[in-house]
Amino acid sequence: MDELSYANGAGDTGATLTDLWQRRTNLSDMEMSYVYALIRRALRGYYPSELRALSEDKEELIAQFIFLRVLRLGNDHTKVPEPSNSAPSSTFAICAYFRRYLIDCLRSASHRRNVSMEADEISAELDVHTHPLSDPVESVLAEYCLNEQITRQAARTFVNSLEEADQIILAASLGHSCDVKGGLKGIAEHHRLPSYHYHARKLGVTLKKSASPEDFAHTKIGRWMKNSLGIDIIADNRSVILIVLNLLALEVGA
Length: 254
Description:
Layout: H1 17-22, H2 29-42, H3 58-70, H4 91-107, H5 109-129, H6 136-142, H7 148-161, H8 164-173, H9 183-191, H10 196-203, H11 213-217, H12 220-229, H13 238-252
Helix pairs in contact: 7-13, 8-9, 8-10
């Protein structure tokens, strides 16, 4: 996924949103304006379901998100910079961060007090003005600012980035080789892949029975889902994780 970067003249050449995010409590006026415009553009076509239960309109919530979570203007500016791996570098990640903010709003007392009484009314009113996707797969992916085409392209890029051994193991586990006699062991022996069980666990296609979502999050596939698609590896995201794995399998077998 391409990084979100400056346009020429809006800062140091080659500087990215990751760099701005790291320095977000100490930006120039020009940089702050650039971040504001970039975030609004990234969220323009994103309509997560949490918006339905909040009384503020989307533009107001985006402004709050930028003020409180991105620029952190309401926080102590003396905090040390965050590690680079916490900074979003794609539109998907920005959408995921915004959705987390909306979820936090729903959990807060100020937003909860009227949700139980008004949620059905708000949902019904929005349904009149929106056209939900008929495809359940696309509907789930849309919650994360994704669609099948984007996800399969990202999966293709991920597969191509893997070493040959990992591609063979992935194909043997999810793709066109998964029905080959002998399974993963037979494929590994045929290609003379040593320690294939270790590599399969590092990749994320096999896990221990006691494995948790956090364990999967530390695999190559888990990190790809988190960093490239903006999907947190948690139980609540089980549906979208399974959909992405199925689309990944299609690309492995393409």
